[in-house]
Design goal:
14 strands, Aspartate Aminotransferase, domain 1, three-stranded antiparallel β-sheet, seven-stranded mixed β-sheet, single chain, 378 residues, 12 helices, Aspartate Aminotransferase, domain 2, alpha/beta, 2 domains, binds pyridoxal-5'-phosphate
Length: 378
């Protein structure tokens, strides 16, 4: 059996090696490392795939979030509502820009931002909602867009974990994750569902004016070379990363299907294991399983994790500490107990290996090992 990894990028590369190598070699020969044709090509391929008017490539997913906030022209102290159960990047950029993160709790079964809690968090200073499509499933964008419209708020989707997933509206319409709000943001970090071989990210929008603004900001606030209309940043996707992404984008739906097949197997085999709750799948969103995250009840998580580790099976905790309990985000507004669902999840979630290359033998071995532990530790 091949070694089991949380994400198996080596095995995935072997299958696309000739194509990737040829594209990278051509870039080496041409020396068009920055702003070369590969970046434009990937940009338009992704626009077509997502059915969105504008894709603005940038250096990473964190930058994408920051640039989206910068493009919305906010003022210090404006409030940005987001989930406490996410990766730090989502809220970090809010604080970095002098804006005020207003955190809310999540749904216990999907781990996604609670729309009820969003409503309760709205104040006269609220300006933006940032839902996070955590682990590959979309937050309730229908309700979130309704709330935003009612209160005149903007929406930035953090789709770093959800590229390729869709949201189905009640009127029968479907849209790709990240193309529903004013901006969608994603990350091409290697372990993400569409990952490059370094850092990368992008913003998506259907709004021409916002796209123009974001394109300026990523490039030092300039439209005409050396004429800077506003303060921007330097945030570029390079040609090598764009080429890798172009090769992988063609296979993204196939990759999502492989992840879903692995999740189907976990679901089926773990459904009846006492103390394990498999992740809930929503009907209004297609899950692309960036992570397969279950919750444990009455099972010693640390003991299970080390039992699996001894058998060569990695299992990770995403995330061990909600944002409001992070040292960096300690705030008088949020004491321990402020967000009981997220705090409970932080203590009970466990993510299993999830990637495009899991084979039947590995899956069976993972599931059998979990069952063995549970049986022996009743
Ligand atoms: C990975 C991730 C980011 C940040 O992306 P980087 O490319 O690593 O900067 C932001 N939000 C979420 C939810 C993520 O998982």
């Amino acid at each position: 059996m091949r070694d089991i990894q949380m994400v198996d990028l080596q095995a995935q590369y072997q299958k696309i090696k000739p194509e990737v190598d040829a594209r990278l070699e051509a870039i080496l020969e041409s020396a068009a490392f920055i702003n070369g044709p590969e970046v434009k090509r990937f940009q338009s391929e992704l626009e077509e795939y997502l059915n969105v008017k504008h894709v603005i490539p940038c250096a990473n997913g964190t930058d994408a979030l920051q640039i989206a906030l910068m493009a919305l022209g906010l003022e210090k102290g404006d409030e940005i509502i987001t989930t406490t159960f996410t990766f730090i990047a989502t809220a970090e950029v809010i604080a970095l820009l002098g804006l005020t993160p207003v955190l809310v709790d999540v749904d216990p079964e999907t781990y996604l931002i609670s729309t009820e809690d969003i409503k309760n968090a709205i104040s006269p200073r609220s300006k933006v909602i940032i839902p996070v499509h955590l682990f590959g499933q979309c937050a309730n964008m229908e309700e979130i867009m309704q709330i935003a419209n009612e209160h005149g708020l903007k929406v930035i989707e953090d789709g770093a974990q959800s590229i390729g997933s869709s949201f189905h509206f009640s009127n029968g319409e479907s849209k790709k994750s990240g193309t529903i709000g004013d901006f969608g943001c994603t990350s091409f970090f290697p372990s993400k569902n569409l990952g490059c071989y370094g850092d990368g990210g992008a913003l998506f929008t259907n709004d021409d004016a916002l796209a123009e603004k974001a394109r300026m900001i990523v490039n030092h606030g300039m439209k005409v070379r050396y004429y800077h209309d506003e303060i921007g940043v330097n945030s570029r996707l390079d040609s090598m990363q764009a080429a890798v992404l172009s090769v992988k984008l063609k296979r993204l739906d196939e990759y999502s299907a492989a992840r879903r097949a692995a999740a189907d197997y976990y679901d089926k085999e773990l459904a009846d294991v006492e103390g394990i709750k498999t992740p809930k799948r929503l009907e209004n969103s297609e899950h692309v399983f960036h992570q397969y995250t279950m919750t444990l009840d009455g099972i010693d998580r640390a003991a299970l994790q080390s039992f699996l580790s001894e058998r060569g099976i990695p299992a990770m905790i995403y995330y061990p500490v909600p944002l409001h309990q992070q040292k960096a985000f300690r705030d008088v507004r949020y004491e321990d107990g402020a967000f009981p669902i997220a705090e409970g999840l932080a203590k009970s979630v466990l993510s299993l290996p999830m990637h495009t290359e899991l084979d039947q033998e590995q899956l069976e071995y993972i599931v059998a090992s979990i069952k063995e532990f549970v049986k022996n530790n009743k």
